[in-house]
Amino acid sequence: MPLPDLLVLSMIRPDQMRQLEAAYTVHRLDLAEDPVAFLAEVAPRIRAAVTTGGRGITADEVAALPALEIVATSSVGTDKIDLGACAARGIHVTNTPDVLTDDVADIALGLILMTRRRLVEGHAYVASGAWAQEGPFALTSALKGKKVGILGLGRIGQAIAARCLPFGMRVGYCARSEKPVDFEFMPSPQALAEWSDIFVIATPGGAQTEALVSKEVIEAIGPRGTLINIARGSVVDEAAMIAALQDGRLGSAGLDVFAREPEADKALTSLHNVALSPHHASGTVETRDAMAQLVVDNLAAHFAGAPLLTPVG
Ligand code: NAP
């Protein structure tokens, strides 16, 4: 039996790439010098596609692959995968939930500490010699007793909440539906922003949540408030956020994700009241290995005729 043909749109971890090469005839679109010509040559044979959250797969690419049966992404987010195009053809989609939850929640807490305790500015104060010249650094704001509002109380949102409690913070949330939890439920992002000292975004990206955190929501977080985004840049009106950070209508922001990646808006890098991270919340060796293994295991289940481990939808 010939091995099934598999298209790599974006590579996963080395050990799992070796596993793919042992089980499939692998075609590396990610390495192709002329991707259009390469795809035209291999497309009719491709039965499976491997991608990542930042790369996804477009409707045009799905249309170009007539034998495609499954798309496996090494990400929990599916906002760059044209799910409609896949569903219309009965193409399975798998993602990698749960295995990345703890790392992403850790980075949310890191960004909270970096912004509220002004760790980025404190580092620069020591490194520049300002401490010796200008004296003690300005006082910052305690976490204990502060209200953390989480927009999207799913796997990652709940893990963030669990980390906030030992710091003595209060948790509130907004989601599409109320959850059986002890945290206060707010009916809208606006209501959550008015309640929060620290507003954390943990929803999916995509059309459903585009600019859900609007200019009005940002202004409700306010001059003493902090916006943390570990979800997707598209969930925030980024231009409104930058303007509010520049003129003090928003106190500070801790951002792992941006409207345009990897070229984050230059205006952000000149602000003193931000902490920036290169979309790296799941970026540990352990978690990326676990995500990549889930990609391999989902594909193996599919070609063995077994139930998929983590199907989308
Ligand atoms: P999840 O378990 O599906 O949770 C998503 C939550 O968002 C749910 O509580 C859902 O509410 C809520 N939600 C969806 N649409 C909403 C809306 N319009 N308004 C308010 N709440 C809404 O997903 P997860 O595993 O926690 O992952 C969340 C997202 O984190 C991913 O989709 C991805 O974009 C992002 N992420 C980022 C990184 C990174 O490296 N920065 C890594 C992993 C994931 P209901 O339960 O009421 O439907």
TrEMBL record:
GO CC terms on record? Answer: cytosol
Q: What is this protein called?
A: 2-hydroxyacid dehydrogenase
What is the similarity comment for this entry? Belongs to the D-isomer specific 2-hydroxyacid dehydrogenase family.
Matching Pfam families: 2-Hacid_dh, 2-Hacid_dh_C
Query: Which is one GO molecular function term here?
Result: hydroxypyruvate reductase [NAD(P)H] activity
- Cite the D-isomer specific 2-hydroxyacid dehydrogenase catalytic domain residue spans from the record: 7-312
Q: Where do the D-isomer specific 2-hydroxyacid dehydrogenase NAD-binding domain residues begin and end? A: 109-281
Q: Which UniProt keywords apply?
A: NAD, NADP, Oxidoreductase
Alphabetized InterPro entries for the sequence = D-isomer_2-hydroxyacid_DH, D-isomer_2_OHA_DH_cat_dom, D-isomer_DH_NAD-bd, NAD(P)-bd_dom_sf
